[in-house]
Design brief:
The complex is a heterodimer. Helix content of chain A is 0%, strand content 55%. Chain A has no helices and eleven strands. In chain A, the strands form two sheets. In chain A, strands 2, 4, 5, 6, 9, 10 and 11 form a seven-stranded mixed β-sheet that branches. In chain A, a hairpin with a 2-residue loop joins strand 7 and strand 8. By secondary structure, chain B is mostly beta strands. Chain B has no helices and eleven strands. Chain B has strands at residues 4-7, 10-14, 19-25, 30-38, 44-51, 56-59, 62-67, 72-77, 86-94, 101-103, 107-112. In chain B, the strands form two sheets. In chain B, strands 2, 4, 5, 9, 10 and 11 form a six-stranded mixed β-sheet that branches. A five-stranded antiparallel β-sheet of chain B has the order 1-3-8-7-6, with no helix packed on it. In chain B, strand 9 (86-94) and strand 10 (101-103) form a beta hairpin. Chain B is globular and about 45 Å long. Classes of the chains: A mainly beta, B mainly beta. Chains A and B meet through strand 4, strand 5 and strand 9 of A and strand 4, strand 5 and strand 9 of B.
Chain lengths: 115, 113
C-alpha cells in the first residue's frame, strides 16, 4: 500500500503570497491530520478531518490557514497570506477509522520557507 | 487539554551507551502512548505503541516503560549505535478521542562512534 504522499516537498514563497500544500492519505484511511513542525514548538495540530468532515481547526491558526478535504483521498492546506514565521515543515498524517489505537501514518512533509 | 513534556531536547551519547528519554503527561485518562522516530529529512515512523494496561514493552534494542502513577513514559535505547541518531517523539492519546494525539516537542539524539 502506498503511504501518505505530500507535495511539494519544498516550497519557497515571498511574504504575502498564497501557497497550497497537498496531501494524499493512505488508501482507506478516514482520519487526516495536518501538523506544523518546528524545532522550537515541535508538532502543532493545525486541522483534523474525519471522513472529510472538519473535526478540529487549530484555534491559533484559523485566520490565515485553511485546510480542506474535497474527497476522501485528497486534502489541501492553504496559507494566505504567508509570513516569514510560517517557515516550517508541514506534515500530513492519516489513520484508519475504527482502529481507535491512535497510530498515525505520516508523510515526508512539505518544507516551507517564507522570505 | 493534554500536555506532554519531553526531556531532554538534545542528547548525545557514545556508541554502545544507553540513551534515556522521558515524557510526562498531564491527563490521567490518557490511554494510548506512542514513540515515533524521525530520521533527518524523513517522515515520522512508529517505533512502538503502548497501551496503559502494559507497563513494560521491549523492542529491538530498546525498552519502553510506562508509569501511570507518575504519568511518565520513557524510552531507553540500550547499546545505542549511529543508526539510532534521529529525533524521537512521544505522543499520548485518550481512549475514544478520534485518534487525536498530543506530541512531545522531541529529543534530538546523536550517537557518536
Amino acid at each position: 500500500d502506498a503511504g501518505v504522499t505530500q507535495t511539494p516537498r519544498h516550497e519557497v514563497a515571498e511574504k504575502g503570497q498564497t501557497i497550497i500544500l497537498k496531501c494524499e492519505p493512505v488508501s482507506g484511511h478516514n482520519d487526516l491530520f495536518w501538523y506544523r513542525q518546528t524545532k522550537i514548538q515541535g508538532l502543532e495540530l493545525l486541522s483534523y478531518f474525519r471522513s472529510k468532515s472538519l473535526m478540529e481547526d487549530g484555534g491559533a491558526f484559523k485566520d490565515r490557514f485553511k485546510a480542506e478535504m474535497l474527497n476522501s483521498s485528497f486534502s489541501t492546506l492553504k496559507i494566505q497570506p504567508t509570513e516569514p514565521k510560517d517557515s516550517a515543515v508541514y506534515l500530513c498524517a492519516s489513520s484508519r477509522l475504527g482502529s481507535n489505537t491512535g497510530q498515525l501514518y505520516f508523510g515526508e512533509g512539505s518544507k516551507l520557507t517564507v522570505l | 487539554g493534554e500536555q506532554v513534556e519531553q526531556r531532554p531536547p538534545h542528547l548525545s551519547v557514545r556508541e554502545g551507551d544507553s540513551a534515556f528519554i522521558t515524557c510526562t503527561y498531564t491527563d490521567p485518562n490518557s490511554y494510548y502512548f506512542f514513540w515515533y522516530k524521525q530520521e533527518p529529512g524523513a517522515s515520522l515512523q512508529l517505533l512502538m505503541k503502548v497501551f496503559s494496561s502494559t507497563e513494560i514493552n521491549e523492542g529491538q534494542g530498546f525498552t519502553v516503560l510506562l508509569n501511570k502513577k507518575d504519568k511518565r513514559l520513557s524510552l531507553n535505547l540500550t547499546a545505542a549505535h549511529p543508526g539510532d541518531s534521529a529525533a524521537y517523539f512521544c505522543a499520548a492519546g485518550l481512549s475514544g478521542s478520534f485518534n487525536k494525539l498530543t506530541f512531545g516537542a522531541g529529543t534530538r539524539l546523536a550517537v557518536c562512534p
